[in-house]
Design goal:
Blueprint: E1 2-4, H1 12-29, H2 33-48, H3 57-62, H4 65-77, E2 93-95, H5 106-127, H6 136-143, H7 154-173, H8 178-187, H9 196-201
Antiparallel strand pairs: 1-2
Helix pairs in contact: 1-4, 1-5, 5-7, 6-7, 7-8
Length: about 200
C-alpha cells in the first residue's frame, strides 16, 4: 500500500509536495505507511477497551508516526497559504494500488508523480475552463470531482480513457503542447452509424 492526501484547493505540485513530506516522515521513522496506520488502529482499539489486556508495546512505539506524517503533509502542501486556509489535516489515507517510493530512473519518478497527482490534475484543468463545452467527455470530467470511477458507465469510462486521460498526461509532462493537443482532440468527431429510424427518414 501507499498513501494519498486530499487537500481542497491544492494544486497538483502542492499535493506531490505534501506526499513527499509525509513519506519522508515514514522513512525517517523506519516504518511503512501500512505499519504506521495499523499501529494507530491497534492503539486506538486498546484505548476504546479501557487499556485492558497486554499493552501493544510495538504499536505504541510507532502509533504517532501516522499523525506526524499527516501534519508534515499538510504543512508542506499548504506552505505559503494564508493561515486561515490551511486545514487541520491532509486527510492522509492508504491506497491499495501498489506504488514504489524507490525509483531506478527519473522516468519512474515522474510517472509516480503523475499517478499520485492525477485527480488534482483533472481538477486543475476543469478550474482553468477546459471541459466546459457540454460535450459527453465534459460531463465525465465533472462527474469525477470525487475521483469515483465506480459511478461511470462503460461508455463514460471509454471517454475518459480516450479523451481525458491523454490530455492529463500532456498537461503534466509537456504543458507547452497542451493547447495544441486539446484543440486536436476536441476537433475530432465520433461518427456514428445512422440507426434504423434515421435511415427510415430518407426512405423512398
Amino acid at each position: 500500500m501507499t498513501i494519498t492526501i486530499r487537500v481542497e484547493g491544492a494544486q497538483p505540485d502542492e499535493i506531490v509536495r505534501g506526499l513527499l513530506a509525509a513519506q519522508d516522515v515514514f522513512d525517517k521513522a523506519g516504518v511503512t505507511p501500512d505499519q504506521a496506520a495499523t499501529a494507530r488502529f491497534v492503539v486506538e482499539g486498546w484505548d476504546i477497551r479501557g487499556f485492558t489486556g497486554k499493552a501493544p508495546e510495538d504499536e505504541l512505539a510507532i502509533c504517532t508516526v501516522w499523525d506526524e506524517a499527516d501534519h508534515a503533509a499538510v504543512q508542506a502542501c499548504c506552505a505559503g497559504w494564508p493561515a486561515d486556509k490551511v486545514p487541520s489535516s491532509a486527510d492522509l489515507e492508504l491506497v491499495r494500488e501498489p506504488q514504489r517510493f524507490s525509483f531506478t530512473s527519473e522516468e519512474e519518478r515522474s510517472e509516480w508523480l503523475f499517478q499520485t497527482a492525477d485527480a488534482g490534475i483533472l481538477e486543475e484543468m476543469c478550474e482553468e475552463g477546459y471541459f466546459d463545452d457540454g460535450r459527453p467527455e465534459d460531463e465525465v470530467a465533472f462527474l469525477l470531482d470525487d475521483w469515483d470511477f465506480e459511478q461511470l458507465t462503460v461508455e463514460q469510462r471509454r471517454l475518459y480513457d480516450e479523451r481525458i486521460y491523454p490530455l492529463m498526461r500532456v498537461w503534466f509532462f509537456d504543458r507547452r503542447r497542451f493547447e495544441e493537443e486539446y484543440i486536436r482532440l476536441r476537433a475530432e468527431r465520433v461518427h456514428h452509424k445512422p440507426n434504423d429510424r434515421q435511415l427510415n427518414l430518407f426512405a423512398v
